[in-house]
Amino acid sequence: MAFTSPNPIQIHRLPQYTYIDALRWLPQLSAFTRRILLATYDSDTSTPSIQILTFTPSQNPKSTPSLTRQSSLSTPSRITSLKIAPSPLNPSKPLIAASTFSGSLLFYSADLIDGSLNLEFSVPEKGLHLGAVSGIDVSDNGSECVSAENGRVDLVSIGEKWSVRRVFDSNGLVSYSTVKWASPVEFVTGGLGFGMHWWDQRKPGGPVVQFKGNWSRGTTSGIVHSVDIHRSRKHTCLAGGSSGTVFAWDIRWQQQPVIVSGAWAGGGPANSLSESEVWEVQYDSYRHSSNTGNVSSSKILPAMICSEDGILAVVEQDEEPVELLAEPCAINSFDIDKENPSDVICSLEWESIAILMRPQDKRQ
């Protein structure tokens, strides 16, 4: 059983006429200007691009807000992962990192004043990756980008002197599908078989901790599609993947995953809304934990997920999920505004953006 939010949520669906591979809120330069970053694909012209749109709320809460395109640049192929981080050189021009199906890595700066994009650096196809780059992440200070492709993990140093280096090559024995920084020197990867690897650059040669999560429904091996790490709890990795599964891996108890949603072999089903692929998972800073008296670091904080079967929801350990949106098509990407956590954007497979605006004065 799922609960719907007890407070009214404004939901606006805006058609875009191109397929949206990923989307992100850009940082706010002022309270009056908000922008959204899109990775799009025009199927009529077979043209992939990256775009900046200006979001203008309506003066009437019941009216639909508007999105106005500010800039657009074509990309070598469709975007597989899209991340934003502060620029180490210019705080007013955040860094945008994008990876592609053809194996290139692209780094842009976004001008928050005029909404323009500028390509700063690129790693061309086969310059580092031989195939599609499955996941990337940029460190909090914007100094490094880690990327994962099949069995390879690589680092790009960002700044006045750009450089690239290979961290690990499993020669195809391990598959990585997502990656996330945990600290300036540590990151985690997730992949096939619900496996998770913890890496520490101070200890080169391979992962320092491994979680072999070969548990799933039936005989099908699950895949971790997305990972998030809370800044205050770097030891806990939140993962979303196949069969509606959301779990947390705490490296202090390395082989004891905490199932937040979905089912797993050897245990009963957890509260779940989805039985399909969970494409993205993020901690939800808007929603307070239902157990406010529990300050233990073992408590998994509330998180938001989106799925192949069209669900956008908030899930929490040992609690019923809260359904925010149920669409007849896949929701393949979403983002929570870091400066206004009440506002969420998500991409609908049927070429639309949904904007959810939760009540700001009544945190759940």
Properties at a glance:
364 residues, mainly beta, four-stranded antiparallel β-sheet, 0% helix, 47% strand
Explain the overall architecture.
Helices cover about 0% and strands about 45% of the residues. The mean pLDDT is about 85. By secondary structure, the chain is an all-beta fold. Strand 19 and strand 20 form a beta hairpin. It has strands at about 5, 10-15, 20-25, 35-40, 45-55, 65-75, 80-85, 95-100, 105-110, 115-125, 135-140, 145-150, 150-155, 165-170, 175-180, 185-190, 195-200, 210, 225-230, 235-240, 245-250, 260, 280-285, 305, 310-315, 320-325, 330-335, 345-350, 350-355. The two termini are about 20 Å apart.
Q: What order do the helices and strands come in, and which of them pair?
A:
Blueprint: E1 3-4, E2 10-15, E3 19-25, E4 34-42, E5 47-56, E6 66-74, E7 79-85, E8 95-100, E9 105-110, E10 117-123, E11 135-138, E12 144-149, E13 152-157, E14 163-169, E15 176-181, E16 186-191, E17 196-200, E18 209-211, E19 224-229, E20 236-241, E21 246-250, E22 258-261, E23 278-283, E24 303-307, E25 311-315, E26 322-326, E27 331-336, E28 343-348, E29 352-357
Parallel strand pairs: 1-26
Antiparallel strand pairs: 2-29, 3-4, 4-5, 5-6, 7-8, 8-9, 9-10, 11-12, 12-13, 13-14, 15-16, 16-17, 17-18, 19-20, 20-21, 21-22, 23-24, 24-25, 25-26, 27-28, 28-29
